[in-house]
Amino acid sequence: MMMRRSLIAGNWKMHTTDTEARELALAVAGNCLGVAERDVLLAPPFTVLGSVSECLKDTGILVGVQNVCWQEKGAFTGEISPTMVKAAGGVAAIVGHSERRQIFLETDELINRRVVGGLSFGLMMILCIGETREQRESGVTFAVLEKQLRGGLAGVQAKDMASIVIAYEPVWAIGTGLTASKEQAQEAHAFIRRLIAEMYEKDLAGQLRILYGGSVKPTNVDELMAQPDIDGALVGGAALDAEAFGRIVAYK
Ligand code: 13P
User: Fold this and answer.
1) Annotated domain spans of the chain
2) Is the CB of 235 under 6 A from ligand 1?
3) Whether this model's pTM surpasses 0.70
4) Most buried of the four, 26, 65, 109, 241, by CB within 10 Å?
């Protein structure tokens, strides 16, 4: 089996003022010492990106954002450009999070523009996909994942796929305390990898990192990460607790 370097990413969502962010970033850094074999990434709000990057410099912990525009500059009120992200120390962007899709009505087409734009500026792009509870119950999970994956990656060339990370986040498991079972998660991840092999090629699919997100906690991380197609986690609530996040990063 192809070895993929694990990535544990913390999505801070809309939490932390500057003081809180600095404190949390330093505490996370203190709790992540000695896990050099894994990548760790924090995605704080835009307003504290620079502060968090500064606190984490020399720690090896990566910093990213929770969304990004496809243009470098211009009349895009409310948006942040890839160049701004990089200037503030960011190397990655999460896009297509279910909260962006559901609350802010972002479509696959819009998300795709973000993916393609972010890649063109050299950002690592973490594309989130996932089905709602209704979709799972009506048996269309894989159709939904396929649509979001094909839509989100439209026009992305094989050579750029090394900068893509997919995050499978079943919407019903986000912030609910409900986690997909290890079998459900593995099944979805294996489906995603097969589809990428079909869209691109097998070797490339073998190198792709696919993260699981949705109520990842210290108590369930070990069994999830033991699955062959789960290469890391995208953590929400538990990422705001430095001790819990440190334990997740150090999963067995
Ligand atoms: P929770 O870990 O709080 O369920 O959030 C997951 C998530 O949305 C990460 O992007």
Assistant:
1) 8-249
2) yes
3) yes
4) 65
